[in-house]
Amino acid sequence: MHVLAVAVTYNPDIDLLARVLEAVASQVQGLVVVDNGSANAEDVRRLASAADAQLIDSSSNLGIAAAQNRGLAVARDGGFTHILLLDQDTILALGMVSDLRANLKSLEAEQGGVAAIGPAYYELNSGVQTRAYRASGPRLSRISLKGEKRPVASDFIIASGSLIPLTVLEKVGGFREDLFIDLVDVEWCFRARAAGYRSFLSPTATVEHRLGSGTVKLGARQVAVHVPIRNYYWVRNALWLARQPYTPLAWRLYFISRCLAFLGTYTTLADKKAQRLRLMTRGIRDSLTGRFGPLDP
């Protein structure tokens, strides 16, 4: 495997980004930083140079999917066989990429048709390890990775830390840029699943990752709290994804119910309640009328 790591940045914490790049640089054969118009772009440029990484910068925020696709183009042109996607705050443990590579090779030899493999991350705000998710008819199962040693199939895995063969990306296609942010990785995994490719989590490749800036409690579950604008994108994209033919039934029901839960939770338990309500209402309207891309000011 010839792996290119693609790290996407947008106004990153510079000290944290330095640790992200340092941790991944020795584990891959190439590194590219795609900056989405950060206010501290000069600092990002300095870190990229220090990490011997190629920098692709933009004067504006193109969204996570567009940035990932720009990294994908570099991988194609550079003769890489795989890409490893990274957020600006995901620090890989030593040997994590080797773990993913070995497990991916084994899975491909055993069954073929692997879309992606990613680590079993621990969410720092909630302190909970991620689980695998599988749909069967109207039922959505959440599967614990505790005690597992072999990769576990999951309908989707988050983008950060995921290792993806370029051959699969060529057949399935890249990431949907009109979604801009939120559920971009979920949509791609569903599309790959419909094309016959499965995604996996490696329970032996752990990493710490932070979703949002905190959590609020929804019943027995912890829900990540993002800045209000993310409520718009999540609701808009979720309702769109619920209408796609390749989205499994259980996930369609999940997205609809989750949007209703968000309307109740974020407008009563989170900060900036009125702003969140306006943004989610607009997200519903834009999803139904087909208005995608970045939200206009």
User: How much helical structure, as a percent, in the residues?
Assistant: 25-40%
Mean pLDDT, as a whole number? Answer: 93
SSE arrangement, N to C: EHEHEHEEHEEEEEEHHEEEHHH
According to CATH, what is the topology of the largest domain? Spore Coat Polysaccharide Biosynthesis Protein SpsA, Chain A
Distance between the termini: 43 Å
Low-confidence stretches: none
Shape: globular
Q: What amount of the residues lies in strands?
A: 25-35%
The top level CATH class name of the largest domain? Alpha Beta
> In CATH, what is the homologous superfamily of the largest domain?
Spore Coat Polysaccharide Biosynthesis Protein SpsA, Chain A
- Placed side by side, the strands forming the largest sheet appear as 3-2-1-4-11
Number of strands: 14
CATH architecture of the largest domain: Alpha-Beta Complex
Largest sheet: 5 strands, mixed
Radius of gyration: 18 Å
Write out key terms for the chains shown.
single chain, 297 residues, alpha/beta, Spore Coat Polysaccharide Biosynthesis Protein SpsA, Chain A, 2 domains, five-stranded mixed beta sheet, 14 strands, 40% helix
What would your notes on this structure say?
With 297 residues, this protein is of the alpha/beta class. It folds into two domains: 3-209, Spore Coat Polysaccharide Biosynthesis Protein SpsA, Chain A, CATH 3.90.550.10; 214-289, no CATH class. The chain is built from nine helices and 14 strands. The protein has a five-stranded mixed β-sheet with strand order 3-2-1-4-11, with helices on both faces. Strands 5, 6, 7, 10 and 12 form a five-stranded mixed β-sheet that branches. Helix 1 (14-25) links the parallel strand 1 (3-9) and strand 2 (30-36). The longest helix has 18 residues, at 249-266. 42% of the residues are buried. The mean pLDDT is 93.
